[in-house]
Design goal:
It is built from 13 helices and four strands. By secondary structure, it is of the alpha+beta class. The longest helix has 24 residues. The N and C termini lie far apart (52 Å). Bound molecules: flavin mononucleotide.
């Protein structure tokens, strides 16, 4: 049976350009097209059997070389959660969410397997770090999609990486186990908003990379986003140095945001916890 995804497509991209003709009807794909991050939750607890099921689904994600280099820590103890939340006071959802998980890249386990089996394993090179980080991201996103399918809402929290030493101390992370992101989980308190994505014309290429029409495509995208939601003037970043923009669109906002370095302590932290990153 073919279907039209026009409503979901427009919600995701802001227009109907590139809408596939007569694709098959797959309800779950409609749900994913309409997905969104949630940062406010009701007090309804997340039942433990559901949480375990979601973790099992999440760990079903693909894994580079079947190395399975991910560890997830659920932060149950109030005092530990409060200490994590205090690291980022402007994101109260870290402390308020019914469940808080931390998804870690685990480059340590493979070295421990080496010890157990009498093989010398150095998993601290860039490859070892990268593989574990990718695996953790895949488990994280699989958890999110599974949780959303179960009616939950989630918010990943990468700002933890701005405080890697404190996070490692709070969670007792050993060398070569590093936080990729926290995750707030709970039943959504509000419908939330869909964050419009760049068109496939920008993000999808055939046979060869080509970004020659980026400027035009992004300008049109900025206008579509602005028509749905204009960033208020008082939220423009760095007006004192960059001035106020007449059209302060997504690209202006992201370009300004990206001038401010983030996670600067992370490379030194990784080296201190055993990664050479060679
Ligand atoms: C790896 C990762 C880290 C994120 N870190 C944070 C964070 O620290 N705080 C936060 O409020 N949202 C965080 N987010 C949520 C993003 O802001 C959100 O996914 C993005 O704005 C797109 O919105 P959508 O998920 O609703 O489409 C993160 C998302 C990802 C994938």
């Amino acid at each position: 049976m073919s279907a039209s995804y026009e409503a979901e497509w427009r919600a995701r991209f802001g227009d109907g350009a590139g809408l596939p003709q007569e694709p098959p009807e797959i309800p779950w794909l409609r749900q994913v097209l309409m997905r969104r991050t949630h940062r406010r939750y009701t007090e309804r607890p997340v039942a433990e059997p559901l949480l375990r099921l979601l973790l099992a689904v999440a760990f079903s994600a693909s894994s580079k070389s079947d190395f399975q280099q991910v560890s997830v820590i659920e932060v149950e103890e109030r005092a530990r959660r409060d200490r994590l939340a205090a690291l980022v006071p402007d994101m109260p959802w870290i402390g308020n969410a019914p469940v808080f998980l931390v998804f870690c890249g685990d480059s340590r386990r493979l070295e421990r397997l080496g010890e157990l089996r009498g093989c010398e394993v150095d998993n601290g090179k860039l490859e070892g770090f990268f593989n574990a980080a990718i695996d953790a991201a895949l488990v994280l996103q699989t958890f999110i999609l599974a949780a959303e399918t179960a009616g939950l809402g989630c918010c990943p929290i990468s700002v933890l990486r701005n405080h890697p030493r404190a996070v490692a101390e709070i969670l007792d992370l050993p060398d070569k186990v590093f936080p990729v992101a926290g995750l707030c989980v709970g039943y959504p308190a509000a419908a939330g908003h869909i964050s419009m994505r760049l068109p496939l014309e920008v993000t999808f290429h055939v046979d060869r990379y080509d970004d020659s029409s980026l400027g035009q495509a992004v300008a049109a995208y900025d206008l579509r986003r602005d028509a749905r939601y204009s960033i208020p003037r008082e939220q423009q970043r760095q007006p004192e140095t960059l001035g106020f923009a007449a059209l302060y669109g997504w690209s202006e906002d992201k370009a300004r945001q990206a001038t401010q370095p983030e996670g600067q302590g992370f490379p030194a932290y990784l080296r201190a916890c055993g990664f050479s990153l060679d």
